[in-house]
Structure formats: structure tokens, C-alpha cells
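Reader question, answered in our methods column.
A reader sent in the components of a multi-part assembly and asked whether the whole thing could be modeled at once rather than chain by chain. We filled in our standard form and ran it. Here is what they sent:
COMPLEX SIZE: two components
ENTRIES:
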Amino acid sequence: MNIYKIVWLELFNRKSQLISGILAITLGIAVIVAIQSVSKVSKENVAKKLDNLGANIMVLPQGGSLDDYYTSDIDAPTFPMDYVERILNSTLQGVDNMSPKLTRRVKVGASSIVLTGILPKSEIASKPVWKGIGLASKDIKTACAPSANKSLGYKDKKLQRKVVDTLGLSDCLVGSQVAMRLKLKENASLTISGKTFKVAKVLPETGTVDDDRVFANLATVQKLLGIPNQISAIEIMGCCNAISDGLLSKLRNLLPDTRITTINQIVSTQIETNQLMNKVSLVFFIIIFFVGSISMGNFMWANVNERKKEIGVLRMMGASKSTVYKLFLIKSIFLGILGGIAGYIVGTLASVILGPYLANITVAPVYIYLLWSVVLSVIISLVGTIIPAYMASKIDPNTNLQEV
Amino acid sequence: MIIRIENLTKQYNHHDGLVKALNNITFSVKKGSFVTITGPSGSGKSTFLLSLFGLIKPTSGKIFFNDQQIDNISDNELAGIRQKNVGFIMQNFALIPYLSTIQNIMVPLVLEKINKEEQLKRATEVLKFVGLENRANHLPRELSTGQQQRVAIARALVHRPSIILADEPTGNLDPALSLEILDFLKKINQTQNITIIMVTHSPTAAEYGNLRIQLKDGALVEHKEIIETVI
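And here is the structure of the entire assembly that came back:
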């Protein structure tokens, strides 16, 4: 037998007290686990959706209009292409893809179209809808999406490959609306401002302004419009978590003479959701920390009072004060471990069962939370026990000895 | 001398004034003695017993255990001396309710950090000695009062102490059981040469002692050494 077995036997001798002792901690941990599990899935879902939307940050020159994110690059003033390199050479984290472009309205016969010069591979990568038709290679993914190839994380040098010219200088991609209006098909010719392009692909309908665009090689468009090495916008696919962490302000510091905007509604919603979840978790954590500690302290205090005679007997037989102190701390750790495990199970079950009904999401158990639950629970339990355990160690060896 | 006491005094503050629970007690105990302490209620018997190894702090006086002064040492040092050298038998047995018979007996060995095999060996030995080997896994509430006191005796013996302090060990037992327990203590005293200091109300129990002390109002009023002769 050892001191741990004595504690264990005492613990299970009073089962109802055991349950009431860990109830507050169990419920507290369950709430945190449930919130965190739902929050994790929710963040991942939003991240996926944001990635599917494509680029989410627009870098425009000063004076560019911010009225409409999707048309803000059209006829905007220009700025040097070097800005792209400035971003590439920076230590910014969370820039998953960049797409510099130059956009102007031009006339084709009687029709007015939007001509956009792009660096094609990056442009394609930033528009996942296009990838579905086989225009993009597979190696461009976003780092924040759970399904992403993690090797393409924040600091991966492969990111630089995203600004690579692979579209022929005389090829163009035609939006579905333009193709319909100008009756264009694949391999047809399209003459813009005297330059003849071959239609490499008619793009599928996206329901956005891109359907009215003609995309051509950036270098060709710059030459055609007579503004070499200038661009009117850089579209960036920023990792949603990085945006939440202040990517926009970092970009503004890097490119002070530009205007940087984002898909406000989506990103701000994501940021707000993340912040709300974090705040809720923090508030719950603080409440649970205090309630759990006080509850455990209360339980231990009652336990110490109830066991005064027994403690007196142990002290009489030669148990030191530190041994008595240790007895209660060990009990506290046992209770913390049990409370943490029970809390994790209850919280995980609640999120798995209720997640689809309450938040319309499917939640899977997050096993690492078990470790955190136990650690947190043990800390709460120990904090609550310190004072009662100290009081127990101060109990006189002759306390109630005559009445034992 | 295993115990030497010089001018032991214990005073309590009471709203009626200062109360002298022990008043200037001086005497010595030889190793292997069976000391009985008698006296009317409130005479200071239990206070005296509990003062010997620091369960009650005396107000003044000196206590020596094996010629080491122990009235002026720290709580932890006193706990260490109790752990290794002293066995306690109390009127109400002082067993831990959620531990079985054998587990209760092992407690002093756990405190002394004796290994598991040795714990089991020694506990089984003393359990056999008190005749409760078939009650090893019973909880205290499943034992009779006599059996509970025998468990308490086994627990007091298991760590091989040099002295046992017994506070009214037969106080809760009927006369027949009392004699059985007293015989047990005598046997321990004689066969294992363990010094026993026993507080008792009972004149019959007092006769088991070869050093009989009587207290009254905290003062030693009688000190009688009995020379036992073997015929």
C-alpha cells in the first residue's frame, strides 16, 4: 500500500461526494470543450468558404475607388509592378497567392469590354471556379484551409512560383458574357485595339464581373495600353486567419502609398466570429476557473472538516504536516483528472450530438482537447485545494483524539 | 531509562482562570516497564499521556526519550520519533473507516515508506498475533468492538515500536473483552519487551502495571513499583 492507494480508497469510499466534488469542474470543462469543438469546426468551415471565394484582398493605388471590391481595379490609376516583389520579398505571413493585373475598358467594335492583363497561373489559382476546367496546375493551394497542402505554408518559397507567366502572349481567356455577346468560341480570333488574340478558352459563367472580362497576358496588355511595368491592382488570396491577425495593416505598412481593401463583409464576419468565439471561450474560462476552484475549495474544506479525526490519527502515528498536505493535493489531482476526462467526454458528446442541430455543422471529437481538459481541470482543482490542504496540515495531532 | 520526565507542567487558559492540568510531574520509566496511570476524571491522565510525545505541548518541564530531550524539538522531528518508536492504542480504536483490517495495520508502515512486500509480511504477522488473520479484508464496521481493538493493537505493533501509549484501551469493552485485551498487552510487554504506558480508570487494569502511578488534580500522588517474582 502507498499514500496514493489511501487517497484512492478514500475517494471511492464516498462516491456521492466524489460526484458532487467533480461536478462543477466536469460541467465547466464540458462547456469549454463544446465551445472549442464547435468553434474549431466553424472556423475551418469559414476558412474553406473564404478560400473557395478566391482572392480576398485588393491592393489599389491611391485614388482607386473602393466602392465595389469586384470592379475597383477597372480604370484605376496605376502603380509599378515592383510592388509585387516588395510583398514577395517581405516576411509577411498569410499571403497565399498574388495576382497583379492591369485593367481598362476597351472597345471591340461597338461593344465595350473590360480587358484585364494577368499573370495567368496566379490569376487562375486565385479563382478556384476556373481550376475546375483544368486551367490550373494542382500545386497552388491556400495554407489556411484544412485541406491545404501544409508544405505551402506561410514561409514556403514555392509561393513565388505563383507569379509565373504561362499564358501565351497572343492568347486570351474570354468571360462567358463577352463570348456570348461577341459570339466567340475557343480558338476564335479576337482583335482588341489592333492586336489579334486567339481565344484559348471561354471561361465558365461565374456570375461576377469576370464574365464581362477578357483576360490576356499582362505584358501584352501593358504594351497594348502603352503603360509598361504598371499595374492597376494586386489581388491577394490572404489566409483568413492571417487577415484576422492583422494582415491588412501589415500590407499597408509595406505599401504605404496604396489603398488596401478586402471583401469586407465576409472577412469582417470571419474576424467577428473568431473574436466572438475567443471572447466567449475566455469568459467561460474565467468563470469556470473561479467557479470550479471555489467549488473544489468548498468541497475540500468540507472534506477536511469531516476528516479531522482521521487526520489527527495520521498525525498521531507520525504523519508529517507535509504528508497530510500531500494527501489532499493528490486527492485534488485525482479529482482533476477524473473531472477533466468526464468534462471532455460530456463536452465532446454535446458538441457532436448538438452541433448539427444548433450550429448546422458536423463536429468531430478533437482528441488533443482531452489533454488540455485534464491539464486545465487539474490546475483548477489544485488552485481550489491549496488553502484547505494547508489548513488540514495545520490540524493538531490530538484533535478530537478522545472522540475518534 | 526509556522515558524521563522532569517537572512537567501543563497549564490551560480558561475563562475562570488558569487551569493546571499537569503540575510539576517528575518520574522515570525503565525500558520494558508496564506503566499504568490512574486517577479520577480530570486528573490529567490523558493530558499526561499525550504530552509525552508532543501530541500536547507542555507549558514547562523536560521530557527525555532514550536520553534525547524531545520537548524542545520541532513538530516534524516529533512526528518522526512517533512514526518509528511509538504505537498508540486509543479508547475508540481510531481506525480509518474506509481501510480494511490489513490496510489499517499497514498505515504506520506506509508513513515509514516501508516497501510493499515487507508491509504485507509484517502486517500478516501481527494480524496472526492478534488472531484476526481471517478478518484481513474486513472493514472496521464489519468487526466487533473487541476485534476492532485488536486491529488497533496490531497497528500499534506493526512498526516494531519501543513504546506503546494506550489511552483507556478497554474503556469501550465489556469486562471479558477487557481482560482479553489487557492479557494481550501484558503478553506484548513480556514477550517483545515493549514498554507500555496505559491510562485507565479501571482498578483491574491498573493491576497489570509493574509501575503504577496515580494522578490527582494534575499532580503525581502515588508512584508504586511492583517487583514481580517468578516462582
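What stands out: Residues 57-262 of chain A form one domain. The mean pLDDT of chain A is 78.
Send us your own complexes using the same form.
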